[in-house]
Design brief:
- This protein has a six-stranded antiparallel beta sheet, with helices on both faces.
- The longest helix has 21 residues.
- The protein is elongated and about 65 Å long.
- By secondary structure, the chain is α+β, with helices and mostly antiparallel strands.
- The chain has nine helices and nine strands.
């Protein structure tokens, strides 16, 4: 007998919910699954899974490989792209940034890469009397000027070199006086469901406040924020769990 998948007993369309359960069985660690795997994960019997997979394959949502295993089809990617375009990224990021500022009382920015430029899409100011002289929303500056956000954007857009290789392992970038004199910053990338970088979030303030203990606290908090945003975008959050904060 098929498992109930924890589905509500009333309302809805069971066949549709079972089909969606099959799609949700795939993840970053299991991008191709056997029929028996799908049956075990969903709690459905193999004949039901096979019928559902046949319908999903007909619509392009799954694809059966030559080895008999199933993987997600191109229709899922298409829906993902539609979802990304429907998101207002600033509306998504803004409340998380506000929460960051409430926790550490340093200024937060969200930047994206446009050609050879860094563009600040959103900023939440610290309430401190002395703040950094960083970018404002709408500002654009050359990617090679330096700074934590610039370094993150360069590293995760594929730039080569030892410093960028190291950053791709550690995720977090830190800068002191690189972009603006007497300013310090910590930045972290944000990823979308296709694994590509969406942008970078940064916390910045005067170097005098960015003591080792304060920086360590900022790094842990910004990792949590980046994890939250990336998860909302459907991205892989494993990279943040593996980041070093010492």
């Amino acid at each position: 007998m098929d498992g109930d998948l924890g589905l509500p007993k009333k309302g809805g369309v069971i066949a549709l919910e079972r089909g969606l359960a099959i799609l949700m069985a795939f993840n970053f660690a299991k991008d191709a699954l056997r029929l028996t795997d799908l049956a075990k994960i969903t709690g459905l019997n193999k004949s039901t899974v096979l019928r559902l997979c046949t319908s999903l394959e007909r619509q392009g949502f799954v694809k059966r490989r030559e080895d008999g295993r199933f993987q997600l089809g191109s229709a899922v990617f298409m829906l993902g792209e539609i979802y990304k375009h429907s998101l207002h990224i600033v509306e998504l990021v803004a409340p998380v940034m506000r929460n960051l500022v409430d926790k550490v009382n340093e200024s937060a920015t969200f930047t994206v890469l446009e050609g050879d430029s860094v563009v600040c899409l959103h900023k939440v100011e610290s309430s401190q009397a002395i703040r950094d002289a960083g970018s404002l929303a709408g500002d654009r500056y050359d990617l090679n000027r330096g700074g934590a956000s610039s370094t993150v954007l360069r590293a995760f857009s594929g730039e080569t070199g030892a410093p960028f290789d190291e950053l791709r392992k550690n995720i977090l970038a830190e800068s002191h006086g690189a972009l603006f004199p007497d300013a310090a910053a910590v930045a972290c990338p944000i990823f979308g469901m296709d694994g590509a970088m969406v942008g970078a979030i940064q916390l910045s303030g005067p170097q005098s406040r960015f003591t080792p203990d304060h920086v360590k606290n900022i790094k842990n908090i910004i990792l949590e924020a980046a994890t939250e945003i990336t998860r909302t975008l459907g991205g892989n959050t494993v990279v943040y769990a593996e980041a070093k904060t010492d």
